[in-house]
């Protein structure tokens, strides 16, 4: 008998499988009542999985409902987030929400009982609703339990069949097998119908089974409305030494003949009179509660006090790539912060994340070239309170945009690092150049966007990232550039640095990352012409240092040049204009950005070709000063 | 014998397989010479696939090298784009580029011989270099040949093994099988080594084979350095009635003992002296040419002249959702434009793309919930000159961001429609709300971004999209709002509409989509206070009508309110500020946007809660007018 078996003492009421079936019917009734009361929702998608969730909740899920933060609790991820009425019906049976609250606030303004579950509810770990994300996130949670915490909690995921069309699900199953996550059980509600009509594979369970097996996971096939079969399968899954996928054949809308297995009912609610019929057909409301369940005793986390951080130091003037400083710092931080974990997308030797791998291999996970799973793993690690960093080329973070967007809805604390930013990449060409990442990352709710120019500031900011909540992004450069700052210089998030300033500055040059160096060079050139330029290193793109920008605009008569190695939209230029506008500062900004489709070339050639060289900044300054160019 | 078999007459020189092996050696030598001359590149990744490409090019690829636009040409997609030296070595053997040009311009500034191939070269269909995209794009090309053109061309894809970790590859193989693309042959160069080190599956060809089979494609396993075996396998692939994946076991860097099957050599070039040794070991340079090859005769496209377009008409004042107008218009356009094709992500009943499906089922392809493949299919259709539209919820287009970014590098002409924009989605909550899409789409090079407010303008703009090149995006709203414009009103891309204006306007209210209606309502409220407001419907977000914005700013003393149902960064507000800055217009913009993490609620409640209601626009106007709020 596996250590995961139920304790009969604590579960007596549910030992009667008929009662579990009744619980499933109760979930159905409540899902219909809830969605009809709200006037929107997905009752049919809830009804198909009622037995799956009833058996799981009553007989296998070990969860201390009054203490959702109990570290021994199992995790239940509702990957098919649109079946929120089902999940919430289960929460009601768990006694954490009243029937009244659900019937009056589901999907209403201000309610945590949202249309798709989010961690606004303490029993929800990650937001779902964009298909194909719950399972990938769950892989991250299971990875933490299996390989970092060595804790006994299990991770259960309820998926829809439609979402198995998302490639991200196969990245997830592949990694579940690769990391041998035997603590992960995936229940797939194969109800045959998607939103428009039949799914691609309908009820071809053997086809799904072949895919699951080929990706290295175990599979079990059951009738998803047979509580005894589900119960046996879940027990078998727990006993198996591999991640397991339970393929459950179900009928969408099962339990009400009015819409069972019928097309055209996705996301549609029953009008009140029909809902009444359906509830009658289902035997009316019930008031069953989940049996009391106890989480597995979670061993206390071993004492891993944070140690003082010793950051790497770089002598001013030496040439170091910011990606190198990122890797060095990550490795140092890893020694100080035992909960820091790194996720790689098979490019650690280029992002330099592998400097961490060399020192802390047990906290380094390479998911190979699967950027969606890379970000999802970080989200899952965040659920368990780790401090995840995930790094790849900035260009390839676009692959995970939907996951990054949802990380913000999930209140996840993840740190993303995108190296090889901009045309500075050089000969590899456009496919490798992040030219859209600042726009992507700025628009994420609650995000922080950092873009250091040198190794010293990178080191400071990487440390600051570890303490920052939300989605935190650092953009790093491929090439080596001079260290601009002395060790120990602070770089508060939301700040900016004046690299050159005087009481008689005539124009302000604003850069970040590689363009800071162009701005400094331009200021020197301007100086030879007798023009005094202020230079701002805008290392914190979001939040932005509006005060420093405002002061500079006022000091230099509104003459600002912004240079950024990014397409013109959504990046540094837009951020500066928004900051100036918010402070009611009048300025004229010469905005230099990548306005072409770049090709290959050496970094200096490309920077010059796209108009980000010192000479272009000088010419822009001349335009502002009225001297032509 | 299949109709695809070679014609011996045209291929005589290559009937000698020893010569094909020699050609492979030539490719190796040239790949080393080219990358060493450039000082960067991926020789080892090129060498592993030399026989694969030599056999394909010499004996199976039917291509009129002097006429790359010949519609009968086969398509060769280099999914492992970093092996560009190998591809270019083949182009040299095809006689379309001189050795001198490659040795002096590969990866150099201004050269079309970029680090990763792009359609800057007429023999390249799509840009590659972001792993996991070439095969998905190729599925779109093959789909066109198989189901739209019924043309005899074949589509060949050369993939790396690392990229099989990307979920997008499995979306692609799944769809290759689903659409029965027997004209597609995928060659996988299983060289065991990725960038950091060994791949997840290394040389476990049976594991790959199980996955390929489970996803519905045929697989063949060969020694990737055995030209006879490759030749037989490719012939078998052509004869098979299914999409076929050739799993070729290879050795990275094969042919030079100095780096063959060695770690630490990814993306590294040989210094000149070692390159000389390697070339000697490979038997020195050769001057072999590809045999002349003739494309299959492509039947002339049947006469399908465009017919006049009859757009749907909507009476002003009636309430119609813009997504409904999108679907109606798409259906009408489909009758007029025989090359218009629609790709759906299993949400056509909600985006209303299925209005097209009902009328033109033969030009409608549902790839199910696989947004990466949805966009890739559109890119592939664009390669064959079709007019693809792809539609899903705007939020879920973020799933395909990397593909959209690369579509611009590919010079693809694709039209994307994202419905259910913003908090206007209502009770479904944040996961379904596009709040980052404008930032994403604006930052794409050469993109067009449209956001109509009513059915009439939507209809006009959808028609305009069909004629527009590049990546063209239209953002649509879930709910039904009043039709603002009379049928026949033109909406040029790059324009804006003054919905209210006079010679004594005091403040300008700028909206797009749903906020246009808030602005109109606010203007009415302001009017009751004796304040005259100008209202701009900024339906064209990129390009933007700077002149109309400038005129409005000047007319209303720089007082502008911008309201957008999007996060504050990268969207309408940033676009307006950039436009004003570019025209040196001084203005003070009150920027109303979604600055919270929204939950559920009714659309009007949410619009009010996030501060986009008429009362918020009125208050913002008061702030600008100095009257407080």
From TrEMBL, chains A, B:
Record CDD domains: TPP_PYR_DXS_TK_like, TPP_TK
Domain of life: Bacteria
UniProt xrefs under Pfam families: Transket_pyr (PF02779), Transketolase_C (PF02780), Transketolase_N (PF00456)
EC number(s) stated in the UniProt entry for this protein: 2.2.1.1
Enzyme class: transferase
Single Gene Ontology MF annotation: magnesium ion binding
Transport keyword on record: no
Domain Transketolase-like pyrimidine-binding: 320-483
Family matches, as InterPro entries: THDP-binding, Transketo_C/PFOR_II, Transketolase-like, Transketolase-like_Pyr-bd, Transketolase_BS, Transketolase_C, Transketolase_N
Subunit composition and interactions: Homodimer.
Name used for this protein in its record: Transketolase
């Amino acid at each position: 008998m596996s250590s995961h078996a139920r304790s009969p003492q604590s579960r007596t009421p549910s030992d009667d499988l008929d009662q579990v079936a009744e619980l499933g019917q109760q979930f159905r009734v409540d899902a219909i009542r809830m969605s009809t009361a709200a006037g929107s929702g997905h009752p049919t998608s809830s009804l198909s999985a009622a037995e799956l969730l009833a058996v799981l909740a009553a007989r296998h899920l070990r969860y201390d409902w009054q203490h959702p933060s109990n570290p021994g609790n199992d995790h239940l991820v509702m990957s098919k987030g649109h079946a929120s009425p089902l999940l919430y019906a289960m929460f009601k049976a768990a006694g954490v929400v009243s029937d009244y609250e659900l019937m009056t606030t589901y999907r209403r303004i201000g309610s945590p009982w949202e249309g798709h579950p989010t961690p606004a509810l303490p029993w929800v770990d990650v937001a779902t609703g964009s298909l194909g994300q719950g399972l990938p996130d769950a892989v991250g949670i299971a990875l933490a339990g299996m390989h970092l915490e060595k804790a006994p909690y299990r991770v259960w995921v309820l998926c829809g069949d439609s979402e198995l069309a998302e490639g991200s699900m196969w990245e997830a199953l592949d990694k579940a097998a690769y990391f041998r996550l035997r603590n992960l059980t995936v229940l797939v509600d194969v109800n045959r119908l998607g939103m428009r009509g039949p799914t691609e594979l309908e009820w071809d369970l053997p086809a799904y089974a072949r895919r699951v097996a080929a990706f290295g996971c175990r599979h079990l096939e059951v009738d998803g409305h047979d509580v005894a079969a589900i119960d046996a399968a879940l027990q078998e899954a727990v006993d198996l030494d591999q991640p397991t996928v339970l393929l459950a054949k179900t009928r969408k809308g099962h339990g009400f003949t009015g819409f069972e297995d019928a097309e055209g009912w996705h996301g549609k609610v029953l009008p009140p009179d029909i809902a009444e019929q359906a509830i009658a057909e289902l035997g009316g409301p019930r008031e069953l509660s989940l049996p009391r369940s106890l989480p597995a005793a979670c061993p206390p986390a071993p004492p891993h006090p944070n140690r003082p951080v010793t950051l790497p130091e770089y002598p001013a003037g030496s040439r170091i790539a910011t990606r190198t400083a990122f890797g060095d710092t990550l490795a140092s931080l890893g020694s100080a912060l035992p909960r820091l974990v790194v996720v790689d997308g098979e490019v650690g030797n280029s992002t330099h994340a592998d400097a961490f791998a060399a020192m802390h291999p047990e906290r380094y996970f390479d998911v190979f070239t699967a950027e969606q799973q890379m970000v999802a793993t970080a989200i899952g690690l965040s659920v368990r309170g780790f401090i995840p960093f995930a790094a790849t080329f900035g260009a390839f973070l676009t692959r995970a945009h939907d996951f990054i967007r949802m990380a913000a809805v999930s209140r996840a604390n993840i740190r993303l690092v995108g190296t090889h930013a901009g045309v500075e990449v050089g000969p590899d060409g456009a496919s490798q150049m992040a030219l859209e990442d600042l726009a992507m990352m700025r628009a994420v709710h609650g995000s922080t966007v950092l873009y250091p120019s040198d190794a010293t500031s990178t080191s400071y900011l990487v440390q600051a990232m570890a303490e920052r909540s939300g989605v935190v992004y650092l953009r790093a450069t491929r090439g080596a550039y001079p260290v601009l700052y002395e060790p120990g210089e602070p770089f508060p998030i939301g700040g900016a640095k004046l690299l050159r300033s005087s009481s008689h500055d005539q124009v302000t040059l604003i850069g970040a990352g590689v363009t800071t160096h162009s701005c400094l060079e331009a200021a020197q050139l301007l100086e030879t012409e007798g023009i005094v330029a202020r230079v701002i290193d805008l290392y914190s793109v979001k939040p932005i240092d509006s005060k420093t920008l405002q002061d500079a605009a006022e000091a230099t008569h509104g003459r600002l040049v912004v240079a950024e190695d990014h397409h013109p939209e959504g990046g540094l230029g837009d951020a500066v204009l928004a900051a100036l506008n918010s402070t009611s500062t009048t300025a004229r900004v010469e905005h230099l950005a990548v306005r072409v489709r770049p090709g290959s070339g050496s970094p200096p050639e490309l920077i010059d070709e796209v108009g980000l060289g010192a000479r272009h900044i000088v010419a822009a300054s001349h335009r502002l000063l009225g001297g032509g160019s």
